[in-house]
Write a structure and sequence with these properties.
The protein is mostly helical and about 375 residues long. The protein contains 17 helices and no strands.
Length: about 375
């Protein structure tokens, strides 16, 4: 049981690390998908935690039951050959966009906080990813196991500090900001979860060695859902309170944190860099696994070319990727989620039906049943 729980924690760490990218920790996603809708956006954040837990459970249990070892083995039985192929390549493309976005986020952080050239931050992230990928899946698990707890603890510390030491001027805006309601908070929450699930599914399917039981699948997804919901609410409320002062800023949370003590600033910077790195590693490794770059001849050179290409595309800019490109893939993610949940319900129904028929068969073979007949 201890081993199963340890595996659950590892699964949750990778899941959290995949979702908590630069878009999340920077505050960009919180602004565009939740704070934009006022207090209803906060309800949307609670809903996201629940959705992440349910979808993660479905994905992991399907993996365990069907002995899935790759994304292809996972998606084709669910979506069929044609839809499976389209989803497979749409996912690869989106993961590449996310990978580039993390490089862009790193560049924006270095530029906004330290006034260091944008390209320095991009190259620093690129080098760290290259070194991690040389260790294959062990490197991915190690990075997430170390950094995901830092993300969780760091966001909680920073968020609570801001609430306890908030100024009267800021709090006077709370009522005004909480009355802001636009468009549809529910669809925004669904789209947010959907595009995050696109990459999460690919990364989770690489964890077949630690998805050793249904218990590990359920507890891992539950822990991740609770953590993601909790972190989301903490960051979401902070962004909501400061909403009018941070519009148009590349890294909103950094602008907010700069008003507080130095120690809080540096804790947040560590959190943000960790978030960028874990998501860059998760998305990059997903693509490498699909294209089998690491395991092919001349893998190190191909890996370097792949990362250099991402550096070039990162010039598009961080906020542009989060605000304009991410939502497009949210609709693809909704389609994938529907397929996963329908397949999962059918799979659970078939298993229950099989167990029920087996019990009837055993009962019919019993000597008393034969005697009564």
């Amino acid at each position: 049981m201890k081993l199963e729980f340890r595996n659950s924690v590892k699964i949750a760490s990778v899941y959290i690390g995949t979702v908590l990218g630069a878009g999340f920790a920077s505050g960009q996603e919180m602004m565009k998908f939740f704070a934009y809708y006022g207090y209803m956006g906060m309800i949307g954040l609670l809903l996201t935690g629940f959705m992440f837990a349910i979808i993660g459970w479905a994905v992991l249990e399907i993996m365990f039951i069907n002995d899935v070892k790759t994304y292809k083995q996972f998606i084709y039985p669910i979506a069929g050959n044609i839809s499976g192929k389209l989803l497979e390549w749409a996912v690869v493309f989106f993961m590449f966009v996310c990978f580039c976005a993390m490089f862009a986020g790193s560049g924006a952080l270095f530029q906004q906080r330290f006034h260091i050239p944008y390209q320095v931050g991009v190259l620093a992230m690129a080098i760290c990813c290259y070194i991690t990928f040389l260790f294959d899946v062990k490197g991915v698990i190690a990075v997430n196991s170390v950094l995901a707890p830092i993300l969780l603890i760091g966001v909680v510390i920073v968020g609570l500090y801001m609430w306890f030491f908030r100024s009267t001027a800021v709090m006077s805006k709370v009522v005004e900001v909480f009355l802001v309601v636009r468009d549809n908070w529910l669809s925004s929450a669904i789209i947010y979860v959907s595009y995050n699930i696109i990459t999460a599914v690919v990364v989770l399917t690489t964890l077949h060695n630690i998805v050793t039981s249904k218990f590990a699948a359920r507890v891992g997804s539950l822990l991740a859902g609770i953590a993601l919901g909790m972190i989301g609410i903490i960051l979401g409320l902070v962004i909501l309170v400061h909403y009018k002062d941070i519009q148009g800023i590349e890294i909103p949370m950094l602008a907010i944190v700069m008003r507080y003590a130095k120690v809080v600033q540096y804790i947040y910077i560590i959190v943000l860099i960790s978030a960028m790195f874990t998501t860059a590693v998760a998305n990059g490794y997903g693509i490498l696994s699909k294209l089998k770059i690491n395991k092919s001849k001349g893998g190190k050179i191909k890996l370097a070319i792949f990362i250099f290409t991402a550096v070039i595309f990162s010039q598009i800019g961080f906020s542009n990727m989060v605000g304009k490109i991410y939502p497009i893939f949210g609709y693809i993610g909704i389609f994938q989620i529907i397929l996963i949940l329908v397949y999962f319900v059918k799979l659970k129904y078939d298993l229950l039906k099989t167990k029920f028929l087996d019990k009837i068969s055993i009962y019919k073979d019993h000597k008393y049943y034969r005697w009564l007949r």
